[in-house]
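As a point of orientation, let us examine one representative protein, giving the amino acid sequence and backbone structure tokens.
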Amino acid sequence: MSTAGADIWRPYEHEPVLTPAMTGGHRATPPEEMDRLRRYLEAVVHDRRGGPVHTAVAFNAAYFGYEPGGEGYGNGAFDIDAFPSLTLGGETPALPVGALVRIETGSDPLYAEIVYKEGRPPAASDGVDIPAWASGAPADVEGPGERHDMSSPVRRELLVPDLTAFGSALQLPEAKLKRFRARQKWLNKDGHVVVDARYASAHEAALDDSAAFVHHLLTCQRESLLSPLVPVSVVQLAGGAREEWLREALTGLLDAVEEALRTSDALRSWGHYALARTRIGSGLCHDGPLGEADLYALTGSLERVAAPVTRRRHGMRGPRTVHTAIGPWLRDLDGAGPLLTGVEYAVSVCRANLAVADFVRRDTDNGLRTGSGVRITLDDRFESGGVWRSHHPGADEVPAGEFSERRTTDTEEVPEAPLADDALADETIGIRNYLRITDSELCWQAPLRLAHLMEDRLPLNGMVRDRLRRPGTDTLPVRLELGHPGGMLDASEEVQEVTLDLTGETGMLRGIQWPVDFFPGLRIYVQWPRGGTVFRLSTAELEDPVDVDGQLIIHRYDPQVLTRDGAPGSGRDGDSSDGLDTRRLVLRAVRRFGRLTPDGHALLDRAALPRGIYATDPAAHQATALEQAVDELLGEHHLYAATGSRGADGEPHYPAREGEAAIPLIGYAPNPVVLPRPGTGGHGPARGTGAEHFVHGFLRRLPADCRPTDVQRAAYREYCRRIGKADGWELPRGYTFVTAHSRRR
């Protein structure tokens, strides 16, 4: 993939690829800014041998100016001698993926970026199957019932460094690296670094990847983060240098970067790691180790290890559970050793996990293999390259989510399945009903629909109905306890006596008195103590309120439902297009009939718009008014134009498919605007909205025969002072400074 095209961002030549809007996350980012970031990150992934590129590594690339084509971070704003040092087998403060490090060698240090890491529990050396206690265990666990000091836990971790990230100037000769691996003094035989990672607290050890990386940026890597030599400073993007603003801005930027990777047609993601589809495909095309045959063998082995034998002298075997670690499984393959060195190990681990995930989605019923009765679920994404759990009889289990990953299902939502390649594919509106099932309770979440508000009801989960249904009983009186933090809730609404309708597919709570500020799309979290007649419903506040088309939202919501059920003419008192002007009729039609994307965009075949509004071919004056309304809405950015294609079956597709006739689409984007928290006085992360595009000042590389003007030198010194460098820095040789400016998109 070429990276030289004019549409691919080049650090220090083009305006920054990270923008103020991205500090609010991907939902606050205009599509054109997200597209530009996505194209650049695709080029980075291909430049780095097809991946895997972690979200943190992708952020580093966009923030510190990774230059595809061999330079890497060679021109970056780093004091390489300030990088944290690593020693093979030694103890070191814990480092996240994305950390820039110095590997001690006794002579010339190795400068690298950590691009992958995994846990190495003591049981990992025992083979492919690891004991249950080692899967999903906290950092301070070293054996069954054995724990370190909780105040500062230590965990053995394998770190994969990319020794090419800083360009050729900081690379050692390959012959010398081979000697290091052979001696296993500075690197192990695979070119990795295994360390005892010490965490400052149990809380720090439990942070997810993004939170851990933000903490690292604001502490260990702070000097580089706040350098005036980066393409654009986070201080500029956040609108100030207050610590909470920087943290919020970095969190939003990471969210935008992850979304750009996850929604790329050229990439596939395993957790936080993105790989080029071509890289995955090429690995399946060869017949050697780690090829298609081995990955098929892996998926088959996960079923076989727990499946009962057909004949036993003393009867059927009892329930069996096996935990298979992907890393050791790959290393156990004949001839695979040389293919698991350096970054290639991370590639192979991600490819193997994707193969298993595809197998589980495609060939099982929510992980259950119907022939053998074995259920396969992801038990731990971090330890030993990922641990998959095989259990028989799996039919006795109710999975907590798509893969039932233990590290998340106890307290967090299980991640959704990857998006379909075609954004206009048939969709199920609203978030998935994530489950948490324990011996004592059943919990799930669901979006509140307009019909639920209008009809004072809420569908339940079918398992509730099945466990409470009694012969001859269709309804039961139950108690509803409602929590709505930060919202408007009357005392009479906190505890309600409602009816449980046990008919239908799922069962239904009826007669609910919904609070006045409940709206379509609001996320409802439901808790049901098993066997009881009490249902606890609650909402959750957003970290920051958002404005969506003039609607202030302070609670978590589902963007698809908000788009569909919040269209013009819809409300708790009714749902009708009567009395709407042409502009609002257009908006209603696009939001109601357009195919939805997960973030709430709605895309409609423009040719279908007239019938979507009038249910028949409009009269001439109606058609004229309709086209005028569409043009106005496009010009004012209430709608946007896109291009799709139509298949032989007449179905529209987006993105356009090769070989199909192109068709114009019209789209609605919610583009939530993050509002400052109360008490900030209007200060906080700057958000880019509207047609006027603000560009912060940035460094630009000059041609060899050009020099910056005195005005540009002075502007750069002032810029340095604004971001915290009080002494004011001079422009680096070979660069000029482009002052902040606005322009139309």
